[in-house]
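All the exercises in this workshop are built on plain-text protein records. Sequence and backbone structure share a record, each on its own labelled line. The structure tokens are whole numbers drawn from a learned vocabulary of backbone shapes. The record below serves as our worked example for the rest of this section.
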Amino acid sequence: MRNISLILKQISRLLVIVVCFASLGNTAYAQDPAKGEALFKSSNCGSCHKIDIRMTGPALGPTIASEPDENYLIKWIQNNQALIAAKNPKALTIYNQYNQSQMSVFTNLSDQDVKDILGYVKAEWKKVEDAKKAAPAGAAGAAAADSGPSNVMVFGLIGVIVIAFLIILVLNRVIGTLERLLLQKQGLLPEDLEEDETGKPKVDRLATVKILAKNKKFVFFVVLCGVIGLGSWTWVTLWNTNVHQGYQPVQPIKYSHQLHAGAMKIDCQYCHSGAYKGKNASIPSLNVCMNCHKVVKTESPEIQKIYNALGYDTQTQKYDSTKQKPIQWVRIHNLPDFAYFNHSQHVKVGGIRCQTCHGQIQEMQEVYQYSPRVRKVSLLIFNR
């Protein structure tokens, strides 16, 4: 019996040790998204990858979520070149799919480091998926809120307006009849006044005008007012000819200077390089936009217009020249033909800031013509 009790004690101790090691093992190999995020950023993974959008490399969220073999992912991240050299089918497929682009090796990352990064990517991808699922409900609610007044309300309002007009018309006729009867009763209406077919008295409506027309002082005053009014209108019209201050056309792409020049502090001359070098500030070509938006792929219908104009496929990252089409921007600032203006003389030599003529462009959601573009404004600037 004593031997049996000793054996049971040994077994129980062994079980305790096994459980402890198992728990330690689970703790050691658990994925830590917080550490993974720090490693993701310190290893510059974001320079080639995003969670939900393809960049130089594939979108990490769907790629990792669809790969069941975690050991393969660890080996690929640590040393993808070794897998390619070993002719691993999965490695060769992804290598050829991305035009045999060389991915950096991360032999400095341990297995646990890679697992932490995978945990971070999975957590972020879950947030993206949850947001997409919640989006339709929010969109439906917004559509219901913005649907506007119902047809019943519109037709009801029209009906009220029509009824009110008819009531006013009837009351006006009644009041006119009552006034005529009251004048007849008081003897203020001439008895010999002719009546028309309806029995109403004929009134000379031009009697007052005829009296005023015979007054020379009144006629002179009217003519004088007419000359002053016509002269003022002519002066203002000529002064404002070809002056379009406040002109704000709708552009084919809703480009926000408030976002780019204001929030992101992008220098004006990064896009409008001609302002420093030549006569015209120039409209930036779309390849300037793609310097950023080949990497910044935020889902936006306005950014998609850029891709469509260039025939750019965000999935393959290739251009199709057969689908390319120009963006038809609407010109805002337009000087008359006789006026010569050179941007470089003002910006480079004179050191005049863009805001002096164009206003606080970094605060404009949509650009409008800030200055009236008349000689007076130029003289005020040069006299500073």
About this structure: The longest strand covers residues 312-313. Confidence is low (pLDDT under 50) at residues 21-28, 139-148. Strands lie at 312-313, 318-319. Residues 232 and 238 are 10 Å apart (CA to CA).
